[in-house]
Amino acid sequence: MAEVSVIIPSYNLGEYIGETLQSVKDQTFQDWECLVVENGSSDNSKDIIREFVSLDARFKLIPLLSNIGVAAARNLAMQRCLGRYILFLDADDLIDPHYMEKAVAALEEDPSLNIVYAQADRFGEETTWDLPPFDMGTMLARNCLYVSCFFKKQELELYYGSGFDTSFVNGYEDWDFWLSFLESLPDEPRVLQLPEVLFHYRTRPGSRNKGVSDEILAEIRLKLWEKHKTLYGKYFCNPTETVEYKRMQRAFLKASKSLGWQLRMGVKELLHRK
Hints:
Layout: E1 4-10, H1 17-25, E2 32-38, H2 45-55, E3 59-63, H3 70-80, E4 85-88, E5 94-95, H4 99-109, E6 115-124, H5 136-141, E7 150-152, H6 153-160, H7 173-184, E8 191-203, H8 214-227, H9 229-235, H10 243-256, H11 259-273
Parallel strand pairs: 1-2, 1-4, 2-3, 6-8
Antiparallel strand pairs: 4-7, 5-8, 6-7
């Protein structure tokens, strides 16, 4: 049984996946398995994956006939993986050779940790990344955990008991996954960020998140709010319940009853009709 299960969904990223798999192979920590879910690519992705599988039995190919999406692909691999710890990795991103070693050491040293990740950078089209440190308030306002964080498979099964929500077809399914996982924990989440850049996020033309419009992002945020209302309520107050809002509401009701207010509103209505 491997200590770490790396889960990679792959679809038409033959240009990059070899580099990604090599970054897994180059880990100083050796006790891992890497499950690659090949989503029916039409390029040479499957050939590259098979080459890694033939040279190293720790790589395992799960071939599919059609593209089921990254969320469903990760869920499928989670059902089959054997590691104590899980690491998701996209087929075009890279991990530093010491990432596994340092993350596993941190998890072993402090069993109360739920998630371990590292500082990160971007490469490709964009190189700057404003990635704030984790806290739940920030996490609810914006996703400050990238998908490639380490967590315990046992905690996932014991508390959350599920995987990625496949209805997030326009992206940000990782944000929802982390919120769902953190919300399921019985105690306040304990998340550690390692103080080194150990994860490298590739930005490229045509990537899914780059194509998300403001309108779709607003819909995703609303969906997250509706799904995780209880969690949001623990960290953010309902604005309609604040003292300031109630004071403003009382002032508005008082003003609306005055004769002057009613006259002004009547004049405005008449002007509007003209």
